[in-house]
Amino acid sequence: MELILTLPIVLIALLAVVEFGLIQANLKQVALASREGARLAAETFPLNPATTSVIRGEVDRRLESAGFGPAATLGITIQETAFGGGPYTDGTCSVPVAPPMPLGAVRVTVCVPLDLLTPNLLQAFGYDITGLVAEHTTTYRHEL
Question: Total structural domains in the chain?
């Protein structure tokens, strides 16, 4: 009798631990891709819509090598304060407004659908991650 009462709670707790663990582990890969994009943007001059697509390609390749498949990002946004351009957006990634940009810096934001990072294990219990987006922003000094 006690097993019937406690098994659903234990199962939900176990699935929650697995799902949130996978999300945290895969967010590290998104952060790595964001850092790679910011590094590349910091070494690129001039930044414009054409170079934004090249940087997004590199970010997608980084995420593909992590196992997320080709074209994993919803988009990237590049902001820069070194030469007064931007923001440049490739895809549907929003422009972050905080914290303020330091002078001579470049900022890359990478957006990835959350359901690409983990299976939707808790959907049957009312926690649905479909349509949610994971964003990571990295700011580097512009190298040129």
Answer: 1
Angle formed at CA 64 by CA 96 and CA 92, multiple of 5 degrees: 30
Task: Find out whether 108 and 34 touch, Cβ atoms under 8 Å.
Answer: yes
CA distances from 119 to 20, 38, 43, 115, 123 (A): 10, 28, 36, 6, 9
- The model's pTM is 0.85
Integer Cα distance of 98 and 129 in angstroms: 25
Domain that holds residue 10: 2-141
Output DSSP code: residue 124: G
Handedness of CA 52, 58, 61, 62 (dihedral sign): negative
**Which two structure tokens, joined as six digits, stand for 108?**
């890359």
pLDDT of residue 88: 84
